[in-house]
Structures are given as structure tokens and as C-alpha cells.
Write a structure and sequence with these properties.
Strand content: under 5%
Structural class: mainly alpha
Number of helices: 13
Order of helices and strands: HHHHHHHHHHHHH
């Protein structure tokens, strides 16, 4: 179908518009665009984009046809202007979608690995168990028992029932007593944990948004207004990330020494000194 044939069909529809003819005309315009899209010289057009663009604009063709006025312009001129504008909108949405997909694909695996790396393993938290089994004086064993108990409280979010029982037997305390204390610490820490993950999710959102801006900037001219807007948005996202990083560092995800001291009903100084000694001796 040529431009002239399409214009004649359009003239007939404008003279006597009806729903049945509109449906046929929409299909004819879509077919014309599919086979003649190259004449509009659209930027970044390829075979994949052509099909996607036709699918994207097809639901809009009925509105485009009904808005045409033969008194204002030739249908060929009108259609060229509409296609140019629609292509720009389609391309902008496609670039944003592609940028988001690229960023998510690149960062999702890294994000999952970072979450896993943030947790402590049992062997790291309870490495003192091996040291306790070594010979020592009664005083040193008492220090080790206290350090082991405090480390178990510090590791309350990750420690399992089996390790709780082992720590309780080693420290000569009842298993229900230690389980109750650790459960109290877990409930207190869960409140802070919720705040921490909320800020982490917000940071990840702004990180993805900043990366999307960088990807979109690569598609635009550095002197264009769109590039300047994306650059400004990128800078704003970076500032938000910095603020969230500061707020996250202020949150202690594990139980604080003050909370452990209050829970175990022992002086805060004893907790501080015991954990500092354990860190220097068994976690250099």
C-alpha cells in the first residue's frame, strides 16, 4: 500500500466515519507502517524495534485516526508528525525499561551475595569453643565461660538450638535460661533489624535508580536537556545513598553491650571488658 492509497481510504472514512470502517483502517495503517517505517528515518530503528513499535502504537491508532483533520494537513504529513512524536515516546520508555533490566541483572547477584556476607557463621561467632576445650587455669576457664556466654548472646540472631544447648552445658547454666535470654535479645534486635533492612531497601532503590540514569545518559547527547536532567537526578540519588549509608552505620544490627548487660543483669563494664578480651585473644 502506498501513501496515496492510504490517503484515499482516509478521505473516504473522514467523509462517512463508522466503527466497522475504522477497524479496517486501523489494520491498514498498521500494515502500512510495518512495511514502510523506513521512510520516516527513525533513530535507532531495527527489525526488533519495528515490531515492538507497531505493537505499542497499534492500540493508539484509532485515536490518531479520529483526531485527523483534512482541513489542517495532508494525512501523509499528519502521520509523519505523529510517528516521529510517538517514536520518541516509545524509545524513551524502551530505554528506561532496558536500563532497569540491565541494572537489575547486573546487581541482583551482587546484592544477594552481599546479604549472605553480612551474616556471621556459627564457627565465626563461636570459635572460642575450641579454645575453651584447651587446658587452662580455673580463672582462665571462668573468663572463657563468661566470654562464651556473651558471644552466644551477641550471636543470638544466628545461633541455633544445638549451639545454645552446647553453650549452656559448657557454661554450667540451664538450657531454658539461656534460651529465654537469647529470645529476649532477638525480640529487641528485630525492631532494629526492621529499620536496618528498610534503609537497605531504600538504598538499593536509589542505587538502581542512579545506575539507570547512567545507562540512559549513554543514549543521549551530553549537551542535550535530557542528559542534563539525568545527570541532576543521578547526583541527587548519590546524595540519598550517602545519607542512608550514614544512617545504616548508626544502627547496630546485633544486641548492644548495654542490652546484653541489662538482660543478663550484670554490669555493663563486665560485658565490655569480657568481649574486648575475647576479641583480642581469640579473634585477632
Amino acid at each position: 500500500m502506498t501513501d496515496q492509497e492510504l490517503a484515499r481510504i482516509m478521505a473516504v472514512y473522514c467523509a462517512e466515519p463508522n466503527p466497522d470502517m475504522l477497524g479496517k483502517l486501523v489494520n491498514q495503517v498498521a500494515e502500512f507502517l510495518y512495511f514502510n517505517i523506513g521512510q520516516y528515518r527513525l533513530r535507532m530503528m531495527d527489525e526488533d524495534f519495528r515490531g515492538d513499535f507497531i505493537v505499542w502504537i497499534y492500540p493508539r491508532l484509532s485515536v490518531i485516526i479520529n483526531r485527523y483533520s483534512a482541513e489542517r494537513a495532508l494525512f501523509k504529513t499528519y502521520l509523519r508528525g505523529i510517528i516521529s512524536t510517538s517514536w520518541y515516546n516509545f524509545l524513551r520508555q524502551r530505554i528506561k525499561t532496558t536500563a532497569k533490566e540491565r541494572v537489575v541483572e547486573q546487581e541482583e547477584e551482587t546484592r544477594l551475595l552481599s546479604i549472605e556476607a553480612e551474616g556471621y557463621t556459627r564457627s565465626e561467632q563461636l570459635g572460642i569453643m575450641t579454645a575453651f576445650e584447651q587446658p587452662g587455669t580455673p580463672k582462665m576457664k571462668a573468663i572463657k565461660r563468661r566470654s562464651l556466654l556473651l558471644l552466644a548472646c551477641k550471636a543470638g540472631r544466628q545461633i541455633g538450638d544445638e549451639d545454645i544447648e552446647k553453650v549452656a552445658r559448657t557454661c554450667n547454666i540451664s538450657v531454658p535460661y539461656l534460651q529465654n535470654k537469647i529470645e529476649v535479645l532477638r525480640k529487641e534486635c528485630s525492631k532494629i533489624e526492621d529499620k536496618f533492612f528498610k534503609k537497605q531497601e531504600n538504598r538499593y532503590y536509589y542505587y538502581l535508580r542512579a545506575r539507570r540514569c547512567l545507562v540512559e545518559m549513554s543514549y543521549h547527547d551530553p549537551v542535550s536537556a535530557t542528559y542534563a536532567r539525568l545527570k541532576e537526578e543521578y547526583a541527587w540519588c548519590r546524595k540519598r545513598i550517602q545519607v542512608l549509608d550514614i544512617e545504616r552505620r548508626r544502627l547496630s544490627r546485633g544486641p548492644s553491650n548495654r542490652l546484653i548487660a541489662r538482660c543478663l543483669e550484670i554490669p555493663r563494664g563486665t560485658v565490655d571488658a569480657s568481649l574486648a578480651h575475647a576479641q583480642q585473644r581469640w579473634y585477632p
